[in-house]
């Protein structure tokens, strides 16, 4: 089933321009519970939208959306759309994995027990916002250039990693009080890249961090010691995007070489390469530019699909066990993509500042995959290989057979 365009959001004000950026939507994000959506609306502005969208906000909606989404939005009552004035071009967005505790007021005064949004800005600042109120909590200072991407630890520890054009990654602990010397929120500076860092991703088990830059290799770091584990060599051009599978057993990287490589992050082994073959019937290839250069890759929530956005004006959806896409959708100037946390659709950001929402295949995971996912959540590849079980079962559990 091909993806269907459900909705499209457009910037609500004229955009400003400078030499670093025009009005691109470089980042989109869903909160972990799926209750909020954020997008960098061109320059200096972030829109925080309660989910699901009101029908009046949609530029285009399919009949599939129906009336249910509107009724559900009304039922929440208190959730209101917010506009965050960041004062600088916004490049990266990330929601924390720290929800409001039941029975308490959503206050961030002590220990940040609320949902927060971090925004990476053009001048190297990271501004941290309380989602429920839209209030600015504090700013993180340290980067010397654009903060291109952000990633929160999924365990709710309020550890934040930022990736910057200053060629470094920085690790922050937002649970610390930033007012005293001993409470400084910056934990570590990670140096190892020689080009702008484009993307960073923390594994769901919070043991590893992957970062990619304008280089042919991806770097894998330990989130326990903040040291470099290994370089992943295999791409032929700049690597621009990365993501871990929900069980942390797989890592995917996307490159301007038009390939996605699937890795075992524990061993560094290349498991599969997905090549973006041009579809001449869908695209005009009169330009000499390599139009299949990848921009973004992400895993689906259950870990059975991948979505990719490339310069050939296509959104592709891949099944984990296949080497060819299972679905395509035509889109222009795509820059980023992200699955809804509960599955069913994908949000994409475009170079003209728009956000589009697409249907995505819904799948009922097999019992085999659910067992593999449960085991791999707490077992490394080496631990699986050490188990006294048949070889074929080991191959399945380590994704050597899909």
From TrEMBL:
Residues 366-402 form the SOCS box domain. Pathway: Protein modification; protein ubiquitination. GO terms for biological process: intracellular signal transduction; protein polyubiquitination. CDD domains: SOCS_WSB2_SWIP2 (cd03745), WD40 (cd00200). WD repeats lie at residues 117-139, 140-175, 190-231, 232-273, 287-321. PROSITE patterns: SOCS, WD_REPEATS_1, WD_REPEATS_2, WD_REPEATS_REGION. InterPro entries: SOCS_box (IPR001496), SOCS_box-like_dom_sf (IPR036036), WD40/YVTN_repeat-like_dom_sf (IPR015943), WD40_PAC1 (IPR020472), WD40_repeat_CS (IPR019775), WD40_repeat_dom_sf (IPR036322), WD40_rpt (IPR001680), WSB_SOCS-box_domain (IPR051983). Keywords: Repeat, Ubl conjugation pathway, WD repeat. This is WSB2 protein. It comes from Trogon melanurus (Black-tailed trogon). The lineage of its organism: Eukaryota, Metazoa, Chordata, Craniata, Vertebrata. The gene is Wsb2.
């Amino acid at each position: 089933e091909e993806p269907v365009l459900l909705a499209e959001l457009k910037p609500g004000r004229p955009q400003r321009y400078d030499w670093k950026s025009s009005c691109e939507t470089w980042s989109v994000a869903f909160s972990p519970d799926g209750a909020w959506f954020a997008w960098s609306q061109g320059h200096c502005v972030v829109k925080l939208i309660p989910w699901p969208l009101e029908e009046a906000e949609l530029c285009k909606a399919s009949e599939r959306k129906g009336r249910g989404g509107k009724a559900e939005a009304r039922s929440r009552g208190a959730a209101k759309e917010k506009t965050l004035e960041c004062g600088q071009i916004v490049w990266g967005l990330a929601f924390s994995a720290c929800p409001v505790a039941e029975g308490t007021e959503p206050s961030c005064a002590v220990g940040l027990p609320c949902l927060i949004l971090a925004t990476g800005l053009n001048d190297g600042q990271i501004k941290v916002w309380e989602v429920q109120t839209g209030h600015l909590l504090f700013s993180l200072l340290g980067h010397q250039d654009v903060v291109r991407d952000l990633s929160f630890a999924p365990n709710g520890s309020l550890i934040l990693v930022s990736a910057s054009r200053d060629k470094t990654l920085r690790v922050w602990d937002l649970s610390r009080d930033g007012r005293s010397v001993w409470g400084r929120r910056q934990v570590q500076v990670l140096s190892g890249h020689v080009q702008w860092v484009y993307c960073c991703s923390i594994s769901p088990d919070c043991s590893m961090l992957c970062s990619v830059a304008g280089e042919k290799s991806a770097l894998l770091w330990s989130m326990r010691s903040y040291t470099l584990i290994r370089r992943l060599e295999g791409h032929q051009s700049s690597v621009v995007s990365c993501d871990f599978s929900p069980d942390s057993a797989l890592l995917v990287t996307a490159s301007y070489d038009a390939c996605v490589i699937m890795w075992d992050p524990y061993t560094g082994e290349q498991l599969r390469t997905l090549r973006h073959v041009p579809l001449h019937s869908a695209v005009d290839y009169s330009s000499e530019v390599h139009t299949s250069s990848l921009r973004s890759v992400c895993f689906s929530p259950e870990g059975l699909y991948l979505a990719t956005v490339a310069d050939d004006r296509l959104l592709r959806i891949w099944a984990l066990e296949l080497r060819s896409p299972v679905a395509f959708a035509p889109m222009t100037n795509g820059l980023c993509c992200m699955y809804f946390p509960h599955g069913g659709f994908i949000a994409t950001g475009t170079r003209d500042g728009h956000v589009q929402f697409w249907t995505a295949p819904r799948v009922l995971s097999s019992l085999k995959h659910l067992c593999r996912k449960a085991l791999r959540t707490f077992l490394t590849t080496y631990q699986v290989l050490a188990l006294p079980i048949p070889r074929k079962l080991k191959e399945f559990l380590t994704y050597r057979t899909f």
